[in-house]
Write a structure and sequence with these properties.
mainly alpha; elongated
């Protein structure tokens, strides 16, 4: 069981709030980026697509999607998007934070995205991986050798 029980979507929403608030701070106005709106939309759609793809693979395998109880996983999912990344939902969330940063023209938003990734890695991914090692042993170890944590 995870020691920290903050759902990853709440961590993402907190990061998005940070992106927004930092874009409204006039003292940070020199740290802006200009990106076309279509790039922000495409990045958000890509992020949502990756997240949805991962969730659908979990559903197909009839295993838990709940990141707060990884020990309840009934199957090691290594198909679909999981052939590219071990953490598609977190990767998708990171892309959504990037999309918000692009839409708001906020370079500081990239720091919020990196903070999100660091937090998720330490407090979510590492405990999840520990649970997966316990549940699936060598199969999970082999999977980790073949597929990167992020991309």
């Amino acid at each position: 069981m995870l020691e920290h029980k903050i759902p990853p979507p709440i961590v993402m929403l907190t990061s998005l709030a940070g992106v927004y608030l930092s874009s409204q701070t006039s003292s940070l106005s020199a740290l802006t980026i200009e990106a076309p709106l279509w790039l922000s939309i495409a990045t958000a759609v890509l992020g949502l697509g990756i997240m949805l793809s991962g969730a659908l693979e979990f559903r197909k395998a009839k295993t838990t999607v709940n990141p707060l109880n990884p020990e309840q996983a009934s199957e090691l999912v290594i198909s679909g998007v999981f052939k590219i990344t071990r953490n598609p939902m977190y990767l998708g969330m990171s892309l959504i934070i990037i999309a918000a940063s692009l839409a708001l023209g906020n370079l500081i938003g990239l720091a919020w995205m990196m903070g999100f990734m660091l937090y998720i890695q330490v407090f979510q991914i590492k405990p999840e991986e520990k649970a997966m090692h316990k549940l699936f042993g060598d199969s999970f170890a082999d999977y980790c050798q073949q597929v990167r944590r992020w991309i």
